[in-house]
Amino acid sequence: MKIEKLENHQDLGKRAGQIGAEAIRQAIRKQGYANIILATGQSQFETIQELVRAEDLDWSKVRMFHLDEYIGLPVTHLASFRKYLTERFVNHVPALAEVVLIDGEVVPAEEECQRLARKIMDNPIDVAFVGIGENGHLAFNDPPADFEETAPYIVVNLDKQCRQQQLGEGWFPSLEDVPLQAISMSIRQIMKSKKIICAVPDSRKAQAVKDCLSGEVSNMHPASILQQHPDCTCFVDSGSGALLP
Ligand SMILES: N[C@@H]1[C@@H](O)[C@H](O)[C@@H](COP(=O)(O)O)O[C@@H]1O
């Protein structure tokens, strides 16, 4: 794992998006297509904006997977991650080869996990864009995260710090409105990606960044597993990187 420190969140997003776009181009050149994962949340705003700017990229050869989604939240809800990805990414690039969104409204959610598992097992991931939560989570794998789970997508419970972060970012009117469960890509599945671009801006992530990127690998700091990935770069800014040695 490498760490790159940028001045602010704009520079961070630009750099992460440019490196990511180049990795997508390379995969297309090499094998004719690229499979990618996109994350959501405030931390991904600029990275996704930069990807959308990559007009020379042949998006018709790109299949997009979705990292995590709340269970039971309608697609019309402000906090819906499929709404986020559709409005911030899919609607701004030419037609993709395929868009594999997580439908958090399927009952039971385990059925949706199985559908997604079949899809992703047939389509190994070239480039994964991820973030790190204030509690150190990777996707919606809150601490203590399951590092051994082999299923690609799982149903997870969201802890209070995670739910409070979602409230703090303004996606929900009150803590009670934040769902208690989500469908998340598992840690093992994320780690199978050939390349990982981790964008983590903002001083509110400083402690999580310190714990995950410079502490010991531990499931109490789920994103610390990224230290073991052979091709992962974490992009931090002066705020999120403030406590790094
Ligand atoms: N579930 C999302 C992930 O898709 C994202 O990668 C990460 C960072 O998100 P944020 O930008 O909200 O901090 O955790 C969020 O809660």
From TrEMBL:
Question: Which InterPro entries does the protein's record reference?
Answer: Glc/Gal-6P_isomerase, Glucosamine6P_isomerase, NagB/RpiA_transferase-like
Q: Would you tell me the Gene Ontology cellular component terms?
A: cytoplasm
Q: What class of enzyme is it?
A: hydrolase
The residue ranges of the Glucosamine/galactosamine-6-phosphate isomerase domain are 8-228
Q: Which Pfam families match?
A: Glucosamine_iso
One GO process term, biological-process aspect: glucosamine catabolic process
* EC number(s) stated in the UniProt entry for this protein: 3.5.99.6
Molecular functions per Gene Ontology: glucosamine-6-phosphate deaminase activity; identical protein binding
* Entry protein name: Glucosamine-6-phosphate deaminase
